[in-house]
Write a structure and sequence with these properties.
Largest sheet: none
Number of strands: 0
Helix content: 55-70%
Distance between the termini: 92 Å
Shape: elongated
Radius of gyration: 31 Å
Order of helices and strands: HHH
Structural class: mainly alpha
Length: 84
């Protein structure tokens, strides 16, 4: 028991004598990958049968729904500019 109290006493002395070691956090800014456009989320509701067709098309042509949507919207907007 005396050894335990001695260790506790030594610990208290160490804590009083030594300043606390505060860890220093290094902050590194996140760099965006060059060449990649900034993306935002886009949600909308479409008919269920159209979604099934889109998924089937994506599987057949090994293309994601995201890429299908981007291409379709770009084509739509490019066509609207020339027509309007």
């Amino acid at each position: 028991m005396g050894d335990y109290q001695n260790k506790l006493g030594n610990l208290a002395d160490k804590l009083k004598k030594e300043p606390p070691k505060t860890p220093v956090q290094e902050v590194i800014p996140v760099r965006e990958k060059s060449g990649k456009l900034h993306e935002v989320q886009f949600n909308n509701w479409i008919p269920k049968n159209l979604l099934k067709r889109l998924k089937a098309f994506g599987l057949e042509h090994d293309i994601s729904l995201k890429d299908i949507n981007i291409k379709a919207l770009e084509q739509f907007l490019n066509g609207s500019r020339s027509a309007g």
